[in-house]
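User: My instructor asked us to take a sequence, write out its structure as C-alpha coordinates, and then describe one feature of it. I'm not sure where to start. Here is the sequence I was given:
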Amino acid sequence: MKKFTILYFGPLGLQGGIGGAARVKNMLGVLKNLQIDTQLISYIPDGKFKVHHQQVGSYLKTTAIYFPQSLLKIFKLFALIIIAIYGLIRVRRYNIVLAHSAGIVYGFPALILAKIFNKPFIIDLTDSKDSDTPGFLYSGLLKKADAVFAVSQYLMAISKKLGCRRIIHVPGFIDTDTFRYNASARNKIRKELNIPATDIVIGYAGAFSQDEGLVGLFKAFEELSKRYSGIKLVLLGGLDIPGLSDRKSLNEAVSEGRVMFVPPQPYEVVPEYLSALDIACSPKIECAANKVADPIRVYEYMSIGLPVVASTIGETANVIKDGIDGFLFKPGDDEDLARVMEHIIQNLASLKKLGSKARGKVIRYYSQLAASGKIRDTFLDLTDESRP
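Assistant: Let's start with the prediction itself. The C-alpha coordinates for your sequence are:
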Protein backbone atom coordinates (compact mmCIF):
# COMPACT_ATOMS: atom_id res chain seq x y z
CA MET A 1 0.00 0.00 0.00
CA LYS A 2 1.12 3.54 -0.72
CA LYS A 3 2.74 5.24 2.29
CA PHE A 4 0.94 8.37 3.47
CA THR A 5 2.40 11.03 5.74
CA ILE A 6 0.25 13.84 7.14
CA LEU A 7 1.03 17.39 8.21
CA TYR A 8 -2.02 18.15 10.37
CA PHE A 9 -3.01 21.64 11.56
CA GLY A 10 -5.54 21.43 14.39
CA PRO A 11 -6.26 21.56 18.14
CA LEU A 12 -4.20 19.41 20.47
CA GLY A 13 -6.59 16.46 20.72
CA LEU A 14 -4.55 14.07 22.84
CA GLN A 15 -6.93 14.37 25.79
CA GLY A 16 -10.11 14.37 23.72
CA GLY A 17 -12.90 16.26 25.44
CA ILE A 18 -15.52 18.13 23.43
CA GLY A 19 -15.84 19.81 20.08
CA GLY A 20 -12.70 20.13 17.98
CA ALA A 21 -10.43 18.34 20.44
CA ALA A 22 -12.61 15.22 20.40
CA ARG A 23 -12.71 15.22 16.59
CA VAL A 24 -8.93 15.58 16.38
CA LYS A 25 -8.38 12.81 18.93
CA ASN A 26 -10.55 10.44 16.92
CA MET A 27 -8.91 11.50 13.65
CA LEU A 28 -5.52 10.79 15.21
CA GLY A 29 -6.87 7.39 16.23
CA VAL A 30 -7.75 6.61 12.61
CA LEU A 31 -4.35 7.78 11.37
CA LYS A 32 -2.64 5.62 14.00
CA ASN A 33 -4.70 2.57 13.00
CA LEU A 34 -3.73 3.20 9.38
CA GLN A 35 -0.07 3.46 10.51
CA ILE A 36 0.29 6.96 9.03
CA ASP A 37 3.14 9.14 10.27
CA THR A 38 1.56 12.42 11.41
CA GLN A 39 2.86 15.80 12.57
CA LEU A 40 0.20 17.79 14.46
CA ILE A 41 0.71 21.55 14.84
CA SER A 42 -1.59 23.20 17.38
CA TYR A 43 -2.32 26.69 18.73
CA ILE A 44 -3.22 26.91 22.42
CA PRO A 45 -4.40 30.33 23.73
CA ASP A 46 -3.33 29.67 27.30
CA GLY A 47 -0.47 30.62 29.60
CA LYS A 48 2.89 32.13 28.70
CA PHE A 49 4.40 31.87 25.25
CA LYS A 50 6.20 28.59 24.68
CA VAL A 51 6.56 25.88 22.05
CA HIS A 52 6.36 22.27 23.16
CA HIS A 53 7.36 19.29 21.01
CA GLN A 54 6.38 15.71 21.83
CA GLN A 55 6.68 12.26 20.30
CA VAL A 56 3.47 10.33 21.01
CA GLY A 57 3.77 6.66 20.18
CA SER A 58 5.24 5.42 16.92
CA TYR A 59 3.25 7.51 14.45
CA LEU A 60 2.57 10.93 15.99
CA LYS A 61 4.65 14.01 16.66
CA THR A 62 3.08 17.16 18.11
CA THR A 63 4.12 20.80 18.17
CA ALA A 64 1.99 22.89 20.56
CA ILE A 65 2.34 26.68 20.36
CA TYR A 66 1.14 28.40 23.53
CA PHE A 67 0.17 32.07 23.45
CA PRO A 68 -1.28 34.30 26.23
CA GLN A 69 -5.06 34.41 25.89
CA SER A 70 -5.09 38.04 27.03
CA LEU A 71 -3.35 39.33 23.88
CA LEU A 72 -5.31 41.61 21.59
CA LYS A 73 -6.48 40.03 18.34
CA ILE A 74 -3.94 41.92 16.25
CA PHE A 75 -1.07 40.47 18.29
CA LYS A 76 -2.48 36.97 17.82
CA LEU A 77 -1.31 37.26 14.23
CA PHE A 78 2.12 36.44 15.61
CA ALA A 79 0.76 33.02 16.62
CA LEU A 80 -0.39 32.52 13.04
CA ILE A 81 3.07 33.42 11.77
CA ILE A 82 4.74 30.98 14.17
CA ILE A 83 2.31 28.21 13.15
CA ALA A 84 3.23 28.86 9.53
CA ILE A 85 6.97 28.85 10.32
CA TYR A 86 6.82 25.48 12.08
CA GLY A 87 4.74 24.15 9.22
CA LEU A 88 7.29 25.46 6.73
CA ILE A 89 10.10 23.66 8.56
CA ARG A 90 8.25 20.34 8.37
CA VAL A 91 6.11 20.37 5.22
CA ARG A 92 8.71 18.77 2.91
CA ARG A 93 8.62 15.55 4.95
CA TYR A 94 4.87 15.00 4.44
CA ASN A 95 2.83 14.28 1.33
CA ILE A 96 -0.63 15.47 2.48
CA VAL A 97 -1.64 18.64 4.34
CA LEU A 98 -4.75 18.38 6.53
CA ALA A 99 -6.47 21.31 8.29
CA HIS A 100 -8.99 20.86 11.09
CA SER A 101 -11.14 23.75 9.86
CA ALA A 102 -11.57 26.40 7.17
CA GLY A 103 -10.47 29.04 9.66
CA ILE A 104 -7.67 31.56 9.69
CA VAL A 105 -5.62 29.81 12.40
CA TYR A 106 -5.37 26.33 10.86
CA GLY A 107 -6.82 26.49 7.35
CA PHE A 108 -4.91 29.52 6.09
CA PRO A 109 -1.32 28.40 6.86
CA ALA A 110 -2.19 24.86 5.72
CA LEU A 111 -3.42 26.13 2.33
CA ILE A 112 -0.41 28.39 1.75
CA LEU A 113 2.09 25.63 2.49
CA ALA A 114 0.17 23.04 0.47
CA LYS A 115 0.10 25.27 -2.60
CA ILE A 116 3.74 26.38 -2.33
CA PHE A 117 5.00 22.82 -2.01
CA ASN A 118 2.41 21.24 -4.31
CA LYS A 119 0.81 18.95 -1.70
CA PRO A 120 -2.82 17.76 -1.62
CA PHE A 121 -4.81 19.98 0.76
CA ILE A 122 -7.75 18.60 2.78
CA ILE A 123 -10.09 20.46 5.13
CA ASP A 124 -11.89 18.54 7.87
CA LEU A 125 -14.98 20.75 8.03
CA THR A 126 -16.69 20.34 11.40
CA ASP A 127 -18.24 23.75 11.96
CA SER A 128 -19.45 26.94 10.33
CA LYS A 129 -17.27 30.04 9.95
CA ASP A 130 -15.75 31.29 13.20
CA SER A 131 -15.86 34.94 14.23
CA ASP A 132 -12.13 35.52 13.57
CA THR A 133 -12.22 34.35 9.94
CA PRO A 134 -13.44 36.75 7.21
CA GLY A 135 -16.17 35.32 4.99
CA PHE A 136 -14.10 35.63 1.81
CA LEU A 137 -11.26 33.65 3.42
CA TYR A 138 -13.59 30.91 4.68
CA SER A 139 -15.13 30.39 1.23
CA GLY A 140 -11.76 30.75 -0.50
CA LEU A 141 -10.17 28.04 1.63
CA LEU A 142 -12.99 25.62 0.87
CA LYS A 143 -12.83 26.32 -2.86
CA LYS A 144 -9.07 25.79 -2.94
CA ALA A 145 -9.16 22.53 -0.99
CA ASP A 146 -8.52 19.37 -2.99
CA ALA A 147 -11.02 17.59 -0.73
CA VAL A 148 -13.41 18.50 2.09
CA PHE A 149 -14.43 16.08 4.83
CA ALA A 150 -17.88 17.43 5.79
CA VAL A 151 -19.17 16.29 9.18
CA SER A 152 -22.86 16.95 8.41
CA GLN A 153 -25.29 17.11 5.51
CA TYR A 154 -25.67 20.84 6.21
CA LEU A 155 -21.94 21.43 5.74
CA MET A 156 -21.96 19.26 2.63
CA ALA A 157 -24.62 21.57 1.16
CA ILE A 158 -22.56 24.67 2.05
CA SER A 159 -19.45 23.15 0.47
CA LYS A 160 -21.36 22.21 -2.68
CA LYS A 161 -22.82 25.71 -2.97
CA LEU A 162 -19.33 27.20 -2.75
CA GLY A 163 -18.14 24.96 -5.57
CA CYS A 164 -15.76 22.70 -3.65
CA ARG A 165 -13.94 20.20 -5.85
CA ARG A 166 -14.51 17.04 -3.84
CA ILE A 167 -16.81 16.63 -0.85
CA ILE A 168 -16.81 13.50 1.29
CA HIS A 169 -19.33 12.97 4.09
CA VAL A 170 -17.28 11.94 7.13
CA PRO A 171 -19.67 12.22 10.09
CA GLY A 172 -18.56 12.03 13.70
CA PHE A 173 -16.80 8.82 14.67
CA ILE A 174 -15.49 7.40 17.92
CA ASP A 175 -13.44 4.58 19.41
CA THR A 176 -16.17 2.04 20.17
CA ASP A 177 -13.74 -0.10 22.17
CA THR A 178 -13.29 2.78 24.61
CA PHE A 179 -16.96 3.78 24.65
CA ARG A 180 -18.65 0.60 25.78
CA TYR A 181 -20.76 -0.32 28.79
CA ASN A 182 -18.80 -1.13 31.94
CA ALA A 183 -20.82 -2.72 34.76
CA SER A 184 -18.09 -2.40 37.40
CA ALA A 185 -17.56 1.27 36.51
CA ARG A 186 -21.32 1.83 36.82
CA ASN A 187 -21.28 0.51 40.38
CA LYS A 188 -18.15 2.49 41.27
CA ILE A 189 -19.42 5.85 39.94
CA ARG A 190 -22.86 5.41 41.49
CA LYS A 191 -21.22 4.68 44.84
CA GLU A 192 -19.03 7.78 44.51
CA LEU A 193 -22.08 9.93 43.68
CA ASN A 194 -24.17 8.25 46.39
CA ILE A 195 -26.84 7.13 43.92
CA PRO A 196 -28.92 4.08 44.96
CA ALA A 197 -28.86 1.17 42.52
CA THR A 198 -32.63 1.40 42.07
CA ASP A 199 -32.64 5.10 41.06
CA ILE A 200 -33.00 6.09 37.40
CA VAL A 201 -30.25 8.48 36.30
CA ILE A 202 -30.74 10.95 33.47
CA GLY A 203 -27.44 12.37 32.26
CA TYR A 204 -25.64 14.81 30.03
CA ALA A 205 -21.93 15.06 29.17
CA GLY A 206 -20.40 17.93 27.20
CA ALA A 207 -20.07 21.70 27.01
CA PHE A 208 -22.06 23.96 29.32
CA SER A 209 -22.91 26.76 26.91
CA GLN A 210 -26.41 28.21 26.49
CA ASP A 211 -26.98 26.63 23.07
CA GLU A 212 -26.65 23.14 24.60
CA GLY A 213 -30.18 23.39 26.00
CA LEU A 214 -29.38 22.54 29.61
CA VAL A 215 -31.98 24.97 30.91
CA GLY A 216 -34.67 23.03 29.09
CA LEU A 217 -33.25 19.73 30.32
CA PHE A 218 -33.43 20.92 33.92
CA LYS A 219 -36.98 22.18 33.51
CA ALA A 220 -38.08 18.86 32.00
CA PHE A 221 -36.35 17.03 34.85
CA GLU A 222 -38.09 19.21 37.44
CA GLU A 223 -41.46 18.39 35.90
CA LEU A 224 -40.71 14.67 35.98
CA SER A 225 -39.48 14.92 39.58
CA LYS A 226 -43.01 15.81 40.63
CA ARG A 227 -44.20 12.39 39.47
CA TYR A 228 -41.13 10.19 39.97
CA SER A 229 -39.19 10.33 43.24
CA GLY A 230 -36.40 7.93 42.30
CA ILE A 231 -34.79 9.92 39.47
CA LYS A 232 -31.53 11.86 39.40
CA LEU A 233 -29.93 14.27 36.94
CA VAL A 234 -26.14 14.05 36.46
CA LEU A 235 -24.45 16.82 34.45
CA LEU A 236 -20.84 16.10 33.45
CA GLY A 237 -18.62 18.90 32.21
CA GLY A 238 -19.33 21.95 34.39
CA LEU A 239 -20.46 23.31 37.74
CA ASP A 240 -23.49 25.41 36.82
CA ILE A 241 -26.17 25.84 34.16
CA PRO A 242 -25.64 29.19 32.39
CA GLY A 243 -28.77 31.17 31.62
CA LEU A 244 -30.95 29.56 34.28
CA SER A 245 -33.09 32.33 35.80
CA ASP A 246 -34.68 30.28 38.59
CA ARG A 247 -31.54 29.67 40.62
CA LYS A 248 -33.47 28.78 43.77
CA SER A 249 -35.01 25.64 42.31
CA LEU A 250 -31.65 24.50 40.95
CA ASN A 251 -29.89 25.09 44.25
CA GLU A 252 -32.61 23.19 46.07
CA ALA A 253 -32.31 20.27 43.65
CA VAL A 254 -28.53 20.19 44.16
CA SER A 255 -28.79 20.40 47.95
CA GLU A 256 -31.35 17.58 47.96
CA GLY A 257 -29.07 15.42 45.82
CA ARG A 258 -31.49 15.24 42.89
CA VAL A 259 -29.12 17.15 40.57
CA MET A 260 -25.38 16.53 40.54
CA PHE A 261 -22.66 18.48 38.74
CA VAL A 262 -19.48 16.63 37.82
CA PRO A 263 -16.49 18.73 36.65
CA PRO A 264 -14.77 17.88 33.33
CA GLN A 265 -13.08 14.48 33.38
CA PRO A 266 -10.28 12.93 31.30
CA TYR A 267 -11.71 11.65 28.03
CA GLU A 268 -10.85 8.03 28.84
CA VAL A 269 -12.87 8.25 32.08
CA VAL A 270 -16.05 9.58 30.44
CA PRO A 271 -17.31 6.07 29.47
CA GLU A 272 -17.29 5.15 33.17
CA TYR A 273 -19.65 8.01 33.97
CA LEU A 274 -21.83 7.22 30.96
CA SER A 275 -22.11 3.62 32.15
CA ALA A 276 -23.63 4.93 35.38
CA LEU A 277 -26.53 6.54 33.47
CA ASP A 278 -29.87 5.06 32.45
CA ILE A 279 -30.92 7.79 29.98
CA ALA A 280 -28.60 10.15 28.09
CA CYS A 281 -29.59 13.52 26.60
CA SER A 282 -28.40 15.88 23.88
CA PRO A 283 -30.89 18.76 24.27
CA LYS A 284 -29.39 21.26 21.80
CA ILE A 285 -31.62 24.24 20.99
CA GLU A 286 -32.43 25.80 17.61
CA CYS A 287 -29.60 28.15 16.60
CA ALA A 288 -27.22 28.72 13.70
CA ALA A 289 -24.28 26.91 15.32
CA ASN A 290 -26.33 23.80 16.05
CA LYS A 291 -27.70 23.52 12.51
CA VAL A 292 -24.29 22.45 11.24
CA ALA A 293 -23.49 20.33 14.29
CA ASP A 294 -22.86 16.62 14.54
CA PRO A 295 -22.51 16.24 18.33
CA ILE A 296 -19.97 13.57 19.14
CA ARG A 297 -21.67 12.90 22.46
CA VAL A 298 -24.65 11.29 20.68
CA TYR A 299 -22.36 8.60 19.25
CA GLU A 300 -20.69 8.15 22.64
CA TYR A 301 -24.08 7.68 24.34
CA MET A 302 -25.25 5.24 21.68
CA SER A 303 -22.00 3.26 21.83
CA ILE A 304 -22.52 2.70 25.56
CA GLY A 305 -25.93 1.24 24.68
CA LEU A 306 -28.00 3.90 26.44
CA PRO A 307 -31.47 5.08 25.44
CA VAL A 308 -30.61 8.47 23.90
CA VAL A 309 -32.91 11.50 23.80
CA ALA A 310 -31.78 14.15 21.31
CA SER A 311 -33.30 17.23 19.73
CA THR A 312 -33.95 17.17 15.98
CA ILE A 313 -31.28 19.72 15.16
CA GLY A 314 -28.20 19.24 13.02
CA GLU A 315 -26.95 15.83 11.93
CA THR A 316 -28.59 14.03 14.87
CA ALA A 317 -31.93 13.98 13.07
CA ASN A 318 -30.25 11.95 10.31
CA VAL A 319 -28.52 9.58 12.73
CA ILE A 320 -31.23 8.49 15.18
CA LYS A 321 -34.24 6.56 13.95
CA ASP A 322 -36.92 7.66 16.39
CA GLY A 323 -38.13 4.82 18.60
CA ILE A 324 -35.81 2.28 16.93
CA ASP A 325 -32.30 3.16 18.17
CA GLY A 326 -33.01 6.38 20.09
CA PHE A 327 -35.60 9.08 20.66
CA LEU A 328 -36.04 12.55 19.18
CA PHE A 329 -37.83 15.65 20.43
CA LYS A 330 -38.50 19.14 19.15
CA PRO A 331 -35.62 21.57 19.92
CA GLY A 332 -36.42 23.93 22.78
CA ASP A 333 -39.69 22.15 23.65
CA ASP A 334 -39.32 21.29 27.35
CA GLU A 335 -42.71 19.57 27.48
CA ASP A 336 -41.84 17.34 24.53
CA LEU A 337 -38.52 16.47 26.15
CA ALA A 338 -40.28 15.59 29.42
CA ARG A 339 -42.82 13.47 27.51
CA VAL A 340 -40.11 11.46 25.75
CA MET A 341 -38.10 10.94 28.94
CA GLU A 342 -41.22 9.83 30.80
CA HIS A 343 -41.90 7.25 28.10
CA ILE A 344 -38.38 5.89 28.59
CA ILE A 345 -38.72 5.86 32.39
CA GLN A 346 -41.93 3.85 32.12
CA ASN A 347 -40.44 1.37 29.64
CA LEU A 348 -36.79 1.26 30.70
CA ALA A 349 -36.71 -2.49 31.31
CA SER A 350 -37.83 -3.22 27.75
CA LEU A 351 -35.35 -0.88 26.02
CA LYS A 352 -32.21 -3.02 26.21
CA LYS A 353 -32.74 -4.15 22.62
CA LEU A 354 -32.93 -0.51 21.54
CA GLY A 355 -29.61 0.18 23.24
CA SER A 356 -28.04 -2.80 21.50
CA LYS A 357 -29.27 -1.52 18.11
CA ALA A 358 -27.82 1.91 18.89
CA ARG A 359 -24.39 0.49 19.65
CA GLY A 360 -24.53 -1.70 16.54
CA LYS A 361 -25.30 1.32 14.37
CA VAL A 362 -22.35 3.26 15.78
CA ILE A 363 -19.97 0.34 15.22
CA ARG A 364 -21.17 -0.02 11.64
CA TYR A 365 -21.33 3.62 10.57
CA TYR A 366 -19.73 5.92 13.16
CA SER A 367 -16.69 4.10 14.53
CA GLN A 368 -13.05 4.86 13.80
CA LEU A 369 -12.97 1.68 11.73
CA ALA A 370 -15.97 2.82 9.66
CA ALA A 371 -14.39 6.22 9.01
CA SER A 372 -10.96 4.86 8.13
CA GLY A 373 -12.08 3.51 4.75
CA LYS A 374 -13.32 6.88 3.47
CA ILE A 375 -10.28 8.68 4.83
CA ARG A 376 -7.78 6.18 3.42
CA ASP A 377 -9.48 6.13 0.01
CA THR A 378 -9.38 9.93 -0.17
CA PHE A 379 -5.67 9.97 0.66
CA LEU A 380 -5.06 7.32 -1.98
CA ASP A 381 -7.01 9.18 -4.66
CA LEU A 382 -5.27 12.49 -4.00
CA THR A 383 -1.75 11.10 -3.88
CA ASP A 384 -2.28 8.94 -6.98
CA GLU A 385 -3.50 11.87 -9.08
CA SER A 386 -0.76 13.66 -10.99
CA ARG A 387 -0.31 17.18 -9.68
CA PRO A 388 0.51 20.01 -12.11
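For the description part of your assignment, you could build on this observation: The chain has a mean pLDDT of 91. Try explaining in your own words what that tells you about the chain.
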